[in-house]
Specification:
This protein is α+β, with helices and mostly antiparallel strands and 821 residues long. The chain has four domains: 81 residues, no CATH class; 263 residues, no CATH class; 370 residues, no CATH class; 38 residues. Helix content is 44%, strand content 19%. Helix 1 runs antiparallel to helix 2, helix 5 packs antiparallel against helix 6 and helix 19 packs antiparallel against helix 20.
Length: 821
């Protein structure tokens, strides 16, 4: 027996050692990840608050559960279990000391289960450090910061307490059932005095939880009321009935339930079961039952003129709070902040005649065997181009060069195929380690000393990181020199989520190529589920009442470094995070120059704003504003892919726009501008026209030109809405796309008002000659083109890519009119 016990102790000690080592390795792996990104403050905050939450959950759960299980143990005078030895049955009493240890063990197990569940440390961090909004709701006079910062944490505590009380109560009842304290006899169900008193105290705790739920429901009324909603996804609005009937009633219920809990516990303790049952009946009648009866007794009269007058101020308040919650009041007007408008000559060069997916499928057809994984819009004085990157083969080592092709977005050849860019892009992008969908980790050499990843040189570092990744083969792997690094969290979005778990990510990931560097740009948002008096919006899988643009994340694909650029005027929640973690944010004035001027527009933020414009309107005189019109008759195989951006000025500012209105009326355009002064602007429609008429005119123009439905292989691209000096112009590309071939550009239709033009490209449709290499260029465009080719030659020379160097040199020769050698 002693040898068996020693073996069990040895196995248990080994298991505990492995668990402790795994925990220490994970702790070091987390620290090394955040330290490499310069975010030690985030790691320490996560560690301390996570530990505080788990320890607090463990202590409270163990204390509550043990108090109840020990009470069960105290009710057991002796527990006798039958045993059989040698065919002879006899009874054996379990020692009371073992019963006490059993109660401790069950409580410890329950506490451990609660403690190891997922704990969101950002909730308590926001409740502790969130800044006040210094704005108050008009009905409860609470600072709006309470609903965004504190209320989510309180609701999380309530959910935890409810699960704890429910689970403990079920276990207590089950424990009593297997003891003589609860049994059926000839007189019916017998419950001992001890059990009755214990269950009475648990019932009183349950009544306190009900009181707490009524308190939370009072706050929830401001975001989820009982009024009539207009849209399927809209939250029911706060109403006159909620304000004057239901909210005061919930206040009375919440406070009255507390003394009811005390009286209930005392009644059960003294054996006054009729009084206890009466209290429970009254509680049920005052709660769920009254919620059914009260609306019929209120002064609703929805069809009367008085009811309409009562409803009007609540609707106005809801509209104002919705504008505030979703940034509608941040949408500008051209009268306050001028927006660049394109001339026809500029549109011919700066607006793409190609949909992104058409360029992608063409290149995948031409370069068989690889998939295009990134398309970066390349603005310039000469014209808009697209650089497409193809991922290295799957069996290639991490960091293998990604091939690149640069195609002109404004041109096509006589056969309708894309033309190569003025600046060759064949050099590609080398050393790409971080991208969407990448594997978890990679062991690479940090040749230039700039990779944001943990070191993999020392013995303890190797052991800890290999243990954290649960891959012992890393310990014997040949580490590449010099300065080996283990790049963890190579998926760009997961890497960003670990760095800023308190901010929500947008859906659009925009690649940006600058020279020989690749970046992933993602917009970040503050969201709130309990912001009062605003409408509701579905963001990813969450129904939220508050969305604010917080920052732009720029992820360097070759090093994994992340630059977080806050918006110029962050909301109070974002200001609180910036105050707590100042080291991870980079003010825009301290960012690299290209980030201040060359970032793409915030498409996701513009979509949030446009989604609410149709419901609330905008503070722009009397301009009628409708919902975003995503439906543009594009064929399904051309709707996928990233947004089609256009160039707005000679500085290379990129923009994106979407029509606003309804099928029967075009209300205007929402234009999202990137670059030095990012913003969203609403401009008027220019003429009184219906959106469905615009789509019909575009299709009719294509049909009359023979590039529409007359061909069995015809495909329609997306409709672009471009702000021009003469009003909005709508552009739609049409393709010939056989099932076994690459897409060919059949033509482009441009529509302004009732004026319709068709051409091989947009430049042709507008009567502008294409900018071909070698033709006479304006001085500004000529200098810009020479500079681009010079930079391309320098980058190819540094990378040792003589093929790319030769292509750039040949392009420069053609530009200068020199004969090829």
């Amino acid at each position: 027996m002693t040898g068996r016990r020693g073996l069990l102790l040895l196995v248990a000690g080994l298991a505990l050692t492995l668990l402790a080592g795994r925990w220490l390795a994970a702790l070091y792996g987390d620290w090394a990840f955040y330290h490499a990104l310069g975010a030690d403050a985030v790691w320490s905050e996560q560690l301390m608050l996570g530990a505080l939450l788990r320890i607090g959950t463990f202590v409270i759960t163990f204390g509550f559960a043990f108090a109840n299980f020990f009470a069960v143990r105290q009710s057991i005078v002796s527990l006798v279990l039958p045993r059989t030895v040698g065919g002879v049955e006899f009874s054996e009493a379990i020692p009371t000391r073992r019963l006490t240890l059993l109660a401790v063990g069950v409580a410890l197990t329950l506490a451990a289960l609660f403690a190891v569940t997922e704990q969101d440390w950002t909730l308590i961090a926001q409740a502790m450090h969130g800044l006040p909004f210094r704005e108050f709701d008009p009905y409860l006079d609470r600072d709006l910061g309470f609903y965004v910062n504190v209320l989510p944490f309180e609701r999380d505590l309530f959910d935890l307490a409810s699960v704890l009380v429910t689970t403990t109560s079920i276990l207590v009842v089950a424990a009593y059932v297997v003891t003589p304290s609860v049994r059926w006899d000839e007189r019916g169900l017998y419950v001992s005095t001890w059990v009755r008193r214990h269950l009475g105290l648990l019932g009183a705790v349950g009544i306190v939880l009900i009181s707490w739920s009524w308190r939370l429901e009072r706050f929830s009324l401001l975001s989820e009321g009982s009024g009539a909603s207009r849209f399927a996804q809209e939250a029911r609005p706060f109403s006159y009935y909620d304000h004057h009937t239901l909210m005061p009633y919930l206040v009375v219920l919440a406070f009255a339930a507390l003394p009811v809990a005390v009286v209930f516990a005392a009644a059960v303790w003294r054996g006054s079961l009729r009084l206890a049952i009466g209290l429970l009946t009254a509680l049920f009648a005052a709660g769920p039952l009254a919620r059914v009866v009260l609306p019929s007794t209120s002064l609703s009269d929805t069809g009367s003129r008085e009811a309409e007058a009562r409803r009007r101020p609540y609707e106005a308040t809801r509209m104002l709070y919705t504008r505030r919650a979703f940034g509608v009041d941040q949408v500008t007007s051209p009268d306050t902040l001028p927006l660049e408008r394109l001339t026809e000559a500029q549109m011919g060069r700066w607006v793409s005649s190609w949909d992104p997916v058409a360029l992608t499928r063409f290149l995948e057809r031409e370069r068989r065997g690889t998939d295009v994984v990134a398309l970066s819009w390349m603005p310039g004085v000469v014209g808009l181009e697209a650089q497409l990157l193809r991922r290295a083969p799957s069996d290639a080592p991490p960091g293998t060069r990604w091939p690149a092709d640069r195609l002109r977005a404004d041109a096509s050849d006589a056969a309708g195929l894309p033309q190569p860019g003025i600046v060759p892009g064949a050099m590609g992008i080398g050393g790409v380690l971080v991208y969407p969908g990448a594997q978890r980790y990679a062991l690479v050499a940090d040749t230039l000393g700039g990779i944001a990843a943990p070191s993999f040189e020392g013995g303890l570092e190797k052991l800890a990181l290999a243990w954290d990744e649960q891959n012992p083969r890393l310990l014997v792997a040949d580490a590449p020199l010099p300065r080996p690094r283990l790049v963890t969290e190579r998926d760009a979005l997961q890497r960003l989520a670990r760095l800023v778990p308190f901010l929500a990510q947008g859906e659009t990931v925009t690649p940006v190529v600058r020279g020989d560097s690749l970046y992933w740009v993602v917009e970040l948002f503050v969201i709130g589920e309990h912001y009062p008096l605003s409408e509701r919006l579905l963001v990813a899988t969450r129904q939220v009442h508050y969305v604010q643009h917080a920052a732009t994340a720029v992820i360097q694909a070759q090093s994994g470094a992340i630059t977080l650029l806050p918006v110029v005027m962050p909301d109070p929640v974002m200001r609180g995070w910036m105050r707590r973690f100042p080291g991870i944010f980079t003010p825009r004035e301290r960012a690299p120059r290209w980030m201040a001027t060359g970032l793409p527009p915030a498409v996701d933020w513009a979509m949030v704003q446009s989604s609410m414009l149709g419901r609330t309107g905008a503070f722009i005189d009397t301009l009628p504003v409708g919902k975003p019109q995503k439906m543009d008759n594009a064929d399904a195989d051309l709707t996928i892919g990233g947004p089609t951006l256009f160039q707005l000025d000679s500085l290379g500012t990129l923009a994106w726009s979407i029509p606003l209105g309804s099928p029967d009326r075009l209300a205007g355009l929402l234009v999202a501008r990137g670059g030095l002064a990012p913003r969203t602007t609403v401009i008027g429609p220019g003429s009184d026209v219906a959106w469905m008429v615009v789509l019909q005119d575009l299709q009719e123009g294509a049909d009359r030109a023979g590039i529409g439905r007359s061909s069995a292989d015809s495909r329609r691209g997306r409709v672009q809405a471009i702000p021009s000096v003469r009003g909005p112009i709508f552009v739609q590309s049409f393709y010939e796309w056989p099932a076994d071939g690459a897409p060919r550009l059949a033509g482009v239709v441009a529509l302004r008002g009732t004026e319709r033009r068709v051409g091989r490209t947009l430049a042709d449709a507008l009567g502008q000659a294409s900018t071909d290499v070698g033709r006479e260029l304006p001085t500004e465009a000529f200098r810009a083109q020479v500079a681009q080719l010079y930079d391309a030659m320098g980058a190819a020379l540094r990378a040792g890519d003589w093929k790319a160097y030769g292509e750039a040199s040949a392009a420069l020769g053609r530009l200068l009119g020199r004969p090829a050698h």
